Amino acid sequence: xxxxxSESNSLIRGLHHVALAVCDLPAAVRFYxxxxxxxxxxxxxxxxxLNAGQAWRLGNAGLWLLPAASGACPKRRPVNEAGLAHxxxxxxxxxxxxxxxxxxxxxxxxxxxDLGTGFLYCYARDPEFNVIEVEGVxxxxxxxxxxxxxxxxxxxxxxxxxxxxxxxxxxxxxxSPRWRNDARLDTIADLSGVELRAAWLDAGNAQIELMQYLAxxxxxxxxxxxxxxxxxxxxxxxxxxxxxxxxxxxxxxGWLQAPLSxxxxxxxxxxxxxxxxxxxxxSAPSRRQAGLDALDDPWITQRFSAARxxxxxxx
Length: 315
Fold this sequence. Notes:
By secondary structure, this protein is of the alpha+beta class. It is built from 7 helices and 17 strands. It has a single domain, classed as Roll (2,3-Dihydroxybiphenyl 1,2-Dioxygenase, domain 1), CATH 3.10.180.10.
């Protein structure tokens, strides 16, 4: 887990929202409300951030629940399949959060597992099989409502994708060793003989987690990116200057869906693997209430990291 930087004056302000396409929108709203305590974000809809679906939020980031294409159906994809693979929430109350997830219809890969990192890990699948990683953290303060910790992307080329996000976010990646020969990893992932490498990049209010499974190996081929497919659809970053952010995306190997037009405040693009990204400049007065600063606690991950470090230093 990387230490989060100060929000300061970085070009990329943070991970604004994660988009999830679902086949049964009302059922998905009920599930995420009951399991994670999401709240409506009407300012995001009023600012024109959605063409369809509904805008919801946790304390530090948004969750867009969008309708999947007509005829799309939920698919239980293995966690080593390439693409946007899961979202992770953190909580000092992992037991109650897991209980709420199960009561709302989630299935678990396992009960929470300790890997010796100071965190507990559990993969839960919502009723449409999308993976939510629930991380149990040290109770440095009382906190009932979980917050978004990271968005996970699985890739067949970890060095390339790490270089892209490191350049886009202008941060150094924290890289893992090669993890293998650990039955606990197999249990968490619901796979056999897991070997993987990972990298974490600070996006301001949350992290981007990149993984490459070496066994079972991640393939470049994936159904996650098919148009209208059910599952995680895109990541959106709030930026300070859209033109500069687009130039940085292009400089580091991404591409735009269309050239940036004069006066634009949003751009659609892709990372080098083809995962969909949005860049959002919400500095106009009509859109500020749809920005990260308008959330209840946008920098909670930073506060938690600092509090945890202080607690460790004093022990």
